[in-house]
Amino acid sequence: MDDSRPFLRIEAVKWREHLFFNLLNFTCFKNSDWKHPFLTDSVRKLSPLTVIPYVVFMEIVLFRGKRYFIMLKQRIAGMLVINEKPEALYISSLAVVAEYRKRGVAAYMLKKASWMAELLNKNWLELSVSKLNVPALRLYRKSGFTKKKDKRWSLILRKEIQK
Q1: How many helices (H) and strands (E) does the chain have?
Q2: Range list of β-strands (E), 1-74
Q3: What CATH number did the domain enclosing 156 receive?
Q4: Domain range holding 49?
Q5: Of 76, 91, 66, nearest to 23 (Cα)?
Q6: Neighbours of 24 (CB within 10 A)
Q7: End-to-end CA distance of the chain
Q8: Is 73 among the domain residues?
Q9: Which member of 49, 74, 77, 103 has the lowest number of beta carbons within 10 Å of its beta carbon?
Q10: CA distances in angstroms from 140 to 43, 79, 80, 158, listed in the order given
Q11: How many domains are contained in the chain?
Q12: How far, in Å, CA of 150 to CA of 53, rounded?
């Protein structure tokens, strides 16, 4: 495991970069390590037909979220979207570019999100994750997240913010 964390930094996404952000988010999702039931090999071949609806959908879903690029030197290593709730900071999206996986990038993003939650005086850091996404579940549990709610296809996890 190559630990890149000392070289990472977080940058707010500018409005004019939203389309690029959503396209990159789609690429990370499509190339993820875990096997999504809706992204079988036959569906992956249709990705040019799915990218436009996905990008539009993500723009609507993430409209109020604060978006960040995680940079390693001048390259984008990951993306993070957060939303404020009354008592929690909610991670709407967390994605690592395939070539930077297993280098501590996701752990860095979770640490930065915890730091932001503390600055905003929130009690919890929350997120939703597919029950099938074993690598993400392993990371979140290792990072101190516990189950808040069990849904049909996903779990809502939370981590208490130490003040």
Answers
A1: 5, 7
A2: 8-12, 66-72
A3: 3.40.630.30
A4: 6-160
A5: 76
A6: 17
A7: 31
A8: yes
A9: 74
A10: 28, 16, 15, 9
A11: 1
A12: 28
pLDDT at 27: 75
Q: What number of other Cβ atoms are within 10 A of residue 38's Cβ?
A: 6
Q: What is the pLDDT of residue 21?
A: 79
Amino acid in position 132: L
The two most distant CA atoms of the chain are separated, in Å, by 48
Q: Report yes or no on 85 lying in a domain.
A: yes
Nearest to 109 by CA among 1, 2, 11, 21: 11
pLDDT tens digits, the chain, 163 residues: what are they?
Answer: 556 556 899 998 887 887 777 777 777 766 665 555 444 444 455 466 666 676 666 666 666 788 899 999 889 999 999 999 999 999 988 989 988 988 999 999 999 999 999 999 999 999 999 998 899 999 999 999 999 999 998 999 999 998 7
pTM as predicted: 0.78
